Every structure is written in structure tokens, then in C-alpha cells.
Amino acid sequence: MRFIKECFQRPPEEGKGPWPHRAAEPWRSMNKVGDREGVDELFQAGETSEAPLELDRDTLSGDLGPLKYKKYDLLIVGCGLSGCVLAERCSRELGMTSLIIDVRDHIGGNCYDYLDEAGIRCSKYGAHLFHTKYERVWKYVTRFSEWMANDHRVRGMVPDFEGVKKLVPIPPTQETVNTLFPDANINSEDDMLRWYEGQRVKPSSGEAKNGEEAALSRVGPLLYERIFKHYTKKQWDKYPAELDASVLMRLPCRTSTDDRYFGDAWQALPVRGYTRIFENMLLRDPKITIKLNVDFFAAREAGLLPAHGKLVFTGPIDAYFAAQGLPKLEYRSLRFEEEFIEEPEDGFYQPAFVVNHPSSDVPFTRIVEYKHVPNQPSNVKAGQVKGTRIAKEYSSAEGDPYYPVPNPENRALYERYRQLAEKESDVCFVGRLASYKYFNMDQAILNALEMFDSLKESGKLQPKRRPEDFGPGDGPK
């Protein structure tokens, strides 16, 4: 195995930060988001705090006792995107009441972000990058937050032929190939296409049987070995040859100089963080009650749940049907190893917001440095916070469920759970965990909006299409 030098090269003018949040032209202009769009009602009402608002003791108590004699139209399990969109829509348009319960001590689900002790905005459950091709979703989210344009771009520490790690765009672009393989001499999209064609290895049977064959047919062995093979192993604890072809068939094959991670028309970050979106959606609505630190299953077992019309369940579908004795669905989780660096050189730890580490010699998948993002509080952007916080991400089989594991066994098992769910006439299963589908944020919002459409049209809170009809989500990044 070639020795990999623990160093990387980058253009000297790039520096360490902050990472530019807009792409170069012409790609920058493809983002339809203006410098500022949307309405933050709390901010307009005089709320100047950059941190999540302090919730009252009653909300955090976990005590359902005071609600014993109340009845709600909806009991919503989970205070993430899916449940909160339904609560907001049902209240605003139909005057319905909702009780939202969550086992965690905060609102916002996995989107929750906060300010650390130094005042840096951080994401508790990993970086979230909003992007959508759905104008309906964009118009919806701008009702609850002010947004700023952001072109998310990822860099990877990838070894070249000599084993020197170099900082290159991920997904691969012309720059990636020219940096790792200077003899490629790619100067146009036609050059890049010819390079791919010369690299690709077609499956012997004509159709890829697994992820490795799919990857080789898309990008060829040079990029596969350096960028995708070991990164996939770290993410899934399986090499591509052990995964469905569909997992790797989605590998983007960029022929241009577009180094944006996403190609959607609207790409943005909420100016005051994701938590503010949920605060504007929920906290001033008298028809929505929130109770945190409540375990749904324990409360149900103890008979503590108040009377309600429909149950909206956003948790893992296999957990809901645990008493049926079926096997558990398989998930991958994430573990975050955070570190605050007091006085990094130039104020930053690394030259980009997200740096992937696809090599097998590094146990984590990527490092996120929150200080780079443009929606940091003004004092952070002004350089008044000298330190920085990084989060190394490790994929794990243990912990909160994040990513469904796509293989035939899990798909068949989910189908059995789905059939059980269809028999629960008073329960609506919605969202990523209940659908065993990795929804992007915009897909989760659109799915909930369409379920609300069904409620208005037919009186039934049910999906308009199956989860797979939304297409693939980002999945592990």
C-alpha cells in the first residue's frame, strides 16, 4: 500500500477562512435566492437573541398530567420538520389543535442548532444545508425565517499518485481530476467526458450487480479507489461490493467546473439558524401545545396520553410495531467528536466548511468547522471570536437512527411494516423514520404539505405518493 503523506496542498491564495459561501460564476447565478429573502416574525417583533429562545418550565417538564382532561385534534409524536409542518398547517388553515410531544429537550428535531459557549452557531446533529427544486417549499419556509443565499461546496483530502493528500472538490470536477492526475490535462467538458469514457469499466453482465460495479461504471477505478471505496466502507460498514448497485449508481459525474454540491434552484441558510424556523412556526400559536422530555411509549403504557383525534407518528416505524415481534429495521447513525480550538492559526482550523476524508487511514468521514458558515452571529463573522469548533463525524451502527440501510432485506421488511401501518386507521405515519426513507429537508416538508392537501381534499390525513416517489435523498455525505 502506497504511503500517504499527512499533508495537503491548496492554492496559497485560498487561505484558511472564512470559506466563501458563494460559488463562482456562472454557477452562482443559478441560485435563485437573493441576498436576503423571507420573514422572521420574531425578529420583526423585537427578538434580537441569536440563540434559541428559552422554553418555559411547563414545556420542558415532561408532565402530561395537566392535560389529562383536554382533547386535541392531533397528537403528534416528534417535534421535527414533518410533525411541525402538519401542526402549523392544520392550525393556520383549519383551526385544528395539536399536542406535540418529543423525548428530546428541544424543538426542531435533527435540524436543531444553538450557540456554544463561545457564541458560535453549531448543529447538534450534524451540518444541515437547505436546498430545494420545489418552489412551493421555498415559498413555505420563507414564511418562517429570513434566508441568505449559500452555495454549499465540499472539499476532500484525497491522495494523488504519490500519496500526497490534496484538497479537491467533491463531487469530482475538472479541477479534481487535473489536481490528482496532472497528465489528464482537462480543459473542457468534452475533455472531461472523454476522460470518464476512458476510465469507465462496464459490468461483464451488462448491468451492475452491486455498488462496486456501479461505481466503476460511473467514474472508473482511479476516482473509485481514492474517493468512493473506503468512504463508503466508513459510512455503511460495508464495501461497495456488499451494497445495492443503487447506492453508488447515483454518483455524480461532473464534466463542468461546477463545484457546488447541489444543483437545486434554491440554496440557502436561515440567517438566525434553523431553530428560529420552528420558533416562528410554533411558539406563538395558541392552538399548538408542546411537551418535551416525554417518551411516547412510556406515556402510552402508563395511560397518560390525553384524548386526541388522530395520532401523527414520526418515529421509527419498527419501534411503533415492536410488539408484533418483527425484526428491527437496520439504520446507520452518526457519532460526533467535537473539539474547541482556542487560538487556531488565521482563526480557522481548516480551509473549508466541510472537508471529507475518504482515505482508509482516517477513521472519521469528514470534519465540519461551523465558524465558516455565513449565518454565524455578527460578532463571529467580525472576527471577535478567536477560537473555533470542529466536529469529526464517525458513522456507527449504534445511536439515534439517521440513515436507512438500502438492501433487499430491509426493503422487504419495511413493506411488512407498511402493511401493518395501513391497518392503523387512526394513526398517520409520516417522515423519515416512519417511512424508512431518507428525506432531504425539502422532501420532508413537501411530503407533509401534500398530506395536508389530502386532509383538506378528502378529510383523510394520508400521503399523496409513496416515499420512494420523491427520488433519492442526499443520504450520508
From TrEMBL:
Family matches, as Pfam families: GLF (PF03275), NAD_binding_8 (PF13450)
Residue ranges of domain UDP-galactopyranose mutase C-terminal in the record: 227-438
SUPFAM superfamilies per the UniProt record, alphabetical: FAD-linked reductases, C-terminal domain, Nucleotide-binding domain
GO molecular function: flavin adenine dinucleotide binding; UDP-galactopyranose mutase activity
Biased composition annotated in UniProt, kind: Basic and acidic residues: 457-469
Region (Disordered): 457-477
Entry coiled-coil feature ranges: none
PANTHER family: UDP-GALACTOPYRANOSE MUTASE (PTHR21197)
Name listed for the protein in its UniProt record: UDP-galactopyranose mutase C-terminal domain-containing protein
Species: Pelagomonas calceolata
